[in-house]
Amino acid sequence: MRISLLDRARTRTGETDAAAVTATVDRAGRAEELGFHRFWTAEHHAVPGIAGAAPTVLLAAIGARTHTIRLGTGGIMVPNHSPLVIAEQALLLESLYPGRVDIGLGGSLGFTAPVRRALGRTALRAGEYAAALEEIRSYLHGRADITVRPRVEPPPVLLLASGAGLALAAELGLPAVIGGPLIRDANKIDAYFRDFRPGPRTPEPYLMVSVDIAVAETTERARDLLLPEAWAFADSRDVGEFRALRPVAEVRRLLGSASAKKYDAVRGWMSTAVAGTPDAVADSLTDLLARTGATEILASVSTYDREDVASTDEFLATLQRGTGEPTGPAPRRTAVTSG
């Protein structure tokens, strides 16, 4: 089972942003020691509970502390940047850490209206995103009317797919990353595999599934570990901020007096996650790969106590190494490795 980690540099109550960034770099070093395939960082601008705003900068620091693990942007939000700058940063990372870089690209705008205004992008016209992706790829592969530096072998591009993004990934012949409700959309997933247009670097479709995961000695405890992130998600709808993670016990108290709407939002978020005992999580992930045809799990492990994060990482590493003895059906499709 191929497993990679996505780390958004989440802060905890009472913790500085700098401490969260340092913890992400430290975690990447441990992820390499544990044998994970990739370590990805994300782009979130002016979000109180997320310290990572510039994935390429953070990956440069992580690359200096690691030697073999692949480094990925999960992702760079294309509407926020010039295609030229995205290509330059991607090639610079590749020149520093050759053969280890993945460029995950997404099409999301800023989290709130003030952030979107500050980034200079408040709307996205039809076709604009696809055109920007093609421009980025032309720079990476030396097909543009200017030569982007440094001139090195271009890293692979993967598309963070939501909504119509999976169809776009198939059209462009790109590996795709899906998460949330899209994991359950068999029609869109089947269409990706059916309509995929092969390219020289990706001759066959390649699908990664991004999912929140918690592992503990009991199912109840594992589900409790999901509560801080689930609460932050539900709370963001009311306060317009994705706040720092709170302790599990505090979130349980807050849930006791929460509105039905917020309680349902927490439950809805948790319904897309995987939580349970080691055996149950192994079976769930095996089934998830089988149902989606994905080749790789991109795991988001996020709870208040970093020791619980480390414990889940250690268990997932046993699945990555093939020592966790997961059971269940084999994937129904075979896809090639990207990068």
Task: Provide an overview of this structure.
45% of the residues lie in helices and 14% in strands. It is an alpha/beta fold and 339 residues long. The protein has one domain (2-214, 279-321): Alpha-Beta Barrel (TIM Barrel). The chain has an eight-stranded parallel barrel, surrounded by seven helices. Strand 2, helix 2 and strand 3 (70-77) form a beta-alpha-beta unit. Helix 1 (17-34) crosses helix 2, helix 2 packs parallel to helix 3 and helix 6 packs parallel to helix 7 (186-195). The longest helix is centred in the last third of the chain and has 21 residues, at 219-239. The chain is globular.
Task: Provide the number of structural domains.
Answer: 1
Q: Over all CA atoms, what is the radius of gyration?
A: 19 Å
* Number of strand segments: 9
Stretches with pLDDT under 50, minimum 5 residues: 324-339
Q: How far apart, in Å, are the first and last alpha carbons? A: 16 Å
What is the makeup of the main sheet? 8 strands, parallel, barrel
Relative helix content: 40-55%
Approximate shape = globular
- Note the total helix count: 12
Average pLDDT number: 92
